[in-house]
Amino acid sequence: MQTGAVHDVSPTRQPRGDGTFSVVAEVARSGPAWRRRLRRLDLPVFLALAVLVTWSVWVPRALGLGVGVVGPLWTWAPALTALACAAAIWGRVGLRDLGSRLVRWRVAWWWYAVVLLGPVAFAFAAAAVGVLLARPWATVEPRMLTGGWPDVLIFLLVLVITDGLGEEIAWRGYALPRMLARFSPALASLGLGAFWWFWHLPLLLGRGAPLTGTPVWLLLGDLLAMSVIVTAVFLHTRGSVLLAVLLHASTNLAAVSPRVGPERDLLLPLVVLSMKVVLAAVILAAPGALPDPRGSDSEATFPPAEPRER
Asked: What is the pTM of this model?
């Protein structure tokens, strides 16, 4: 029997102990024919809509057209698309899965330290390497050091509400569980990372765009590596979107992504990228770092995986 399938299975099998598998399997077989077909295509449908909805504002803005207040508000476009797809395609089951991931906070306490303090430690390590390579501290110091701690905490909260929730409800809340139900964690991570890069492309274009001056290859390497890292956290925290949101926000706060400044000096961005790629490579190579949730009781997949025959 095919791993991860939700069709032609017994509705009485409940690998998570809460009826999730049987309920979703029953839902997958119910409803009109068009909706059943849509459920089989929910991942490509969602990805296409996420690009279409977001780019409908980002592309005109990149071309210099005014978009008004819609531009800043569009940070939530992926999340709203995910909620709309969950409701339209899966109904209450889909919304319940998405919502439960967002409030899944019962994980080992040290994962909070990893996602909140890990990017800070990473930023200081990258800055130290920059100093060893003869760059003045003032040019490599982590950006968060330029303000006081109250400012840092407020900025972190803003990033949680905007970038964190706006993107992670979509990428790790909707897309990744469906990719993990179909593919290995490594392939799911790299595939989602490639899409994440493609989705960001309009931000490279136009004067004053958020990523203006960043080479396309630099952004690609960064998001592929970051996707692997976030997937590892996701798999070890029971598929928690909350932890992914915090990691996304703290990463942006610590300016861990390899941005290129106006002076066009690539040294520090290359240091950051190299360190992140090495970390992702270690995760990909280390046994157990990316446990495959297919055929297990893992809460990381949607639809929930059918357990393998013993």
From this structure: 0.88
